[in-house]
User: Which sequence fits this backbone?
């Protein structure tokens, strides 16, 4: 595929947005780019970022252009992300909102740049060709300035349309909530009515548990353990210093009689090896998260560090 055709394909996926660097790489001269801007073949969106003249001036095009002017180091966020995901939380300020790492520049005309100290991969995604914060991270970011009722509605829209799960929101909350972020208390309160919605998969429960306990030192995750009979099971977490096994149990997978019998048998074998087994349910990770965190710190024989 020739460079120009390749660029046009990428522009189509990005709602008609191209950059100066891409145009030059595709063989167009600076003089030709200036001429195209004068004749309307290109419309300047930001310095060095253009919309193809035939592409509509849509929200998605404006968001795509705002993100692209940061050379791959920004993601649509906050109310802008809410508009893209149709979560129903908008604002009067028409500026596009993006988030970048805290060390990066925050100046662009017509763009509100938020800076974050924590942008892990599971907080970020691509939606309709636009780099953007995940729905779960978006909901967390909205909690700072959004009332409980509208925040609850945003969660309802996101979960009903399967944009994210309640477990994913809890995971982001535990990633960021202990860092003094505004809106944490409000989001915790709103999530209380959703806590009956236990995760549909054990992997989600495991992710929430890991997020809650991520700052407890000395925990190894997904550790296989065996005895003379062979493999017992791969435990969710292991604190070797105190020989403590941590398990995150979902009702769907551990409450049926056969599964419960298997758990008892495996726990007996683990106990014979000298391990203590501590099991946590969904409500332990969500409604009792402070107590659970304190307990695991104690199990790890590490003093509980409290946020400043």
Assistant:
């Amino acid at each position: 595929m020739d460079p120009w055709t390749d660029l046009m394909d990428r522009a189509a996926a990005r709602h008609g947005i191209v950059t100066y660097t891409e145009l030059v790489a595709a063989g167009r001269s600076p003089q030709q780019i200036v001429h195209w801007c004068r004749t309307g073949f290109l419309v300047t969106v930001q310095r060095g970022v253009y919309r193809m003249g035939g592409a509509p001036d849509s929200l998605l095009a404006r968001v795509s252009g705002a993100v692209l002017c940061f050379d791959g180091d920004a993601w649509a966020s906050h109310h802008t992300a809410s508009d893209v995901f149709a979560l129903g939380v908008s604002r009067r300020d028409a500026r596009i909102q993006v988030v970048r790492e805290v060390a990066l520049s925050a100046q662009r005309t017509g763009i509100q740049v938020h800076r974050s100290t924590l942008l892990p991969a599971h907080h970020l995604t691509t939606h309709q060709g636009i780099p953007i914060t995940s729905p779960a991270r978006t909901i967390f970011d909205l909690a700072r300035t959004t009332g409980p009722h509208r925040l609850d509605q945003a969660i309802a829209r996101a979960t009903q349309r399967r944009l994210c799960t309640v477990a994913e929101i809890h995971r982001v909350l535990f990633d960021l909530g202990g860092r003094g972020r505004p809106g944490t208390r409000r989001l915790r309160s709103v999530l209380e009515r959703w806590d009956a919605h236990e995760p549909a998969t054990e992997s989600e429960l495991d992710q929430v548990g890991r997020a809650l306990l991520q700052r407890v030192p000395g925990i190894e995750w997904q550790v296989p353990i065996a005895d003379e009979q062979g493999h017992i099971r791969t435990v969710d977490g292991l604190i070797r210093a105190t020989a403590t096994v941590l398990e995150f149990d979902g009702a769907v997978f551990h409450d049926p009689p056969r599964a419960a019998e298997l758990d008892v048998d495996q726990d007996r074998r683990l106990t014979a090896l000298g391990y203590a087994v501590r099991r946590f349910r969904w409500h332990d990770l969500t409604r009792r998260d402070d107590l659970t965190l304190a307990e695991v710190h104690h199990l790890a024989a590490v003093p509980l560090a409290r946020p400043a």
Remarks:
- The CA atoms of residues 225 and 231 lie 6 Å apart.
- The radius of gyration is 24 Å.
